[in-house]
Design brief:
The protein is an alpha+beta fold. Helices cover 33% and strands 25% of the residues. The termini are far apart.
């Protein structure tokens, strides 16, 4: 590690002011990505602005089908919120299978979304749920928020403060996890509301994406059998030491069927 100035923000406005004062200040909440990057010298911010104690950015609010989750809410709290389990059980299931207990008690939904790791779980949920990403400056539709590997529509100094969405009638999430990190080798989130949306994480060579062929098939009949014979091209999928592009393509179909079965259970 190296010398770094630490600031604990008391409010969103305070955090934005502190970030502007630093030469290369970065926001941190759970620190599950930034701190390891700093330890390995892949990141070297001049200042850290801690968002984790901003009360306005924590907690889950559910009003009927309308859901809002503060960006500093931990994976553990997302997984165990009773009202959220009733409204959108798939999101609780997703959060409960992120990393290990230490990660779930520190990592936050906002940090995961802002980092947009290509194998992270939450981006697929936000995309499939048609969520809105709320920042201290504006609201961004999930379809326009995730722009590439580790890239988002966030501008310099912009803070994700919450996410909000309308809970669908049915939804499900299944992933094939890396046995060590628990990141998704392939993860598929399906949601059936006014329309059917299917989002895939862990597989795309440009990050999270919607699987239109699967959406078309499930729009006709929302059951696992409807996906028989439907394939996803491997041409734009990742290939690495964990799985080839062809294997990931096959896994997308398998995980999608399991996600639909979970949604219908």
């Amino acid at each position: 590690m190296y010398s770094v100035n630490y600031h604990r923000a008391s409010s969103v406005a305070d955090a934005a002011k502190l970030q502007k004062k630093g030469d290369d200040a970065k926001y941190v909440s759970g620190g599950m990505t930034l701190i390891p990057a700093m330890k390995s010298r892949l990141a070297a911010p001049s200042d850290l602005v801690d968002l984790s104690k901003i009360a306005a950015m924590t907690g889950v609010k559910v009003s009927g089908k309308n859901v809002e989750i503060g960006a500093a809410t931990t994976h553990f709290d997302v997984a165990n919120d009773a009202k959220l389990k009733a409204a959108c059980p798939a999101l609780c299931h997703l959060a409960a299978h992120i990393g290990d207990p230490a990660v779930r008690h520190r990592g936050t939904i906002g940090g995961s979304i802002a980092n947009n790791d290509p194998a992270a779980d939450y981006p697929s949920a936000m995309l499939a749920l048609g969520a809105t990403i709320v920042t201290n400056k504006r609201e961004i539709a999930a379809d326009k928020f995730f722009t590439g590997l580790f890239e988002t529509a966030l501008k310099d100094g912009e803070i994700v403060t919450a996410v909000k969405f309308t809970a669908p009638a049915k939804c499900g999430y299944e992933k094939f996890p890396n046995p060590a990190s628990r990141y998704a080798v392939v993860g598929v989130f399906v949601a059936k509301g006014k329309d059917v949306r299917v989002a895939v994480t862990g597989a795309g060579d440009d990050g999270v994406f919607r699987a239109k062929a699967l959406e078309t098939a499930l729009s006709k009949s929302f059951n696992a059998a409807a996906l028989d014979g439907v394939t996803v091209s491997a041409s734009n999928l990742m290939a690495d030491m964990h799985a080839s592009a062809d294997y990931r393509a096959a896994l997308i179909g398998v995980m999608a069927k399991r996600a639909v079965a979970r949604a219908n259970a």
